[in-house]
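Input for the complex:
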Amino acid sequence: MTATILDGRAVAETLRAELRAESATLAARLGFTPILAIVSVGDDPAARSYVAGIRRACERTGIACRPLELPLATTAVGLRAAIDELNADRGVCGVLATLPLPPHLPTSVIADSLAPEKDIDGITTTNAGRLAFGWPTFAPNTPAGGMEMLRRYNIPIAGNHAVVVGRSGIVGKPMALMLLAADATVTICHRRTPNLAAIVRGADIVVTAAGRARLITGAMLKPGATVIDFGINFPEWAGGKMVGDVDFASALPVAGAITPVPGGTGPVTNMMLMRNTLAAARTLLDGA
Ligand code: ADP
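Predicted:
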């Protein structure tokens, strides 16, 4: 047996078409095109390529993109003022910040000042708290994309055992909370977890967000398990190619379904931002 490939490009394309149709209807009803603003401080190449991807996703879904590049010397007060301006701008429906911010700016400057209803990546303390409570909210886009993959492929979640490897605030932890909200029995593993293999072997759904190539091999999987791999690694042995945290070749004959890297969870993430921006825009309509 060989696993079903969970095709992120196909899911992203379906989402794109759905969102494009929705944004056209919304713009007509609102009388303006919803804007997604992207705040970056300083000039980081990784952030720049991230922003380029989001711009493309905006173009392809009919959302206006407004990048706001602040100089590296921006102070916390200056950054808060920029966020306040975006909060007050009715046309700006979603605001995204490229993280990490430079060392002199704690993430809390944004997390505590961005309006939660515009926080399309779920980084504000309010939205993180809502997620922890299991309330409806904007969740971080990477794990939201993973949940979307599970749903689009009708992978059963409720009552199943999900093991999440990695506990970062933007991927592992929110993914665990979303799986919990969907009634999975959830185990979170991290750097200090002994017996990783034994725990992973009990999982119906394995989620990896550890940043370690080949951390999970086929021998560690329960036959038929679903594997969602958020890993982005460029190990020397792969000769510059991108690989996930899961050893794809050995996992493929054991897993029931698996996301490839690239082409798995990655393409779906930006579409989650588009969806949240449109959801934020829709609330303007309800309130009008
Ligand atoms: P991301 O932001 O992509 O989730 P981070 O680098 O912030 O990734 O976090 C990596 C996570 O992976 C941490 O929670 C860490 O404990 C976990 N991790 C790293 N190495 C291992 C390992 N060998 N076994 C289990 N968990 C690991």
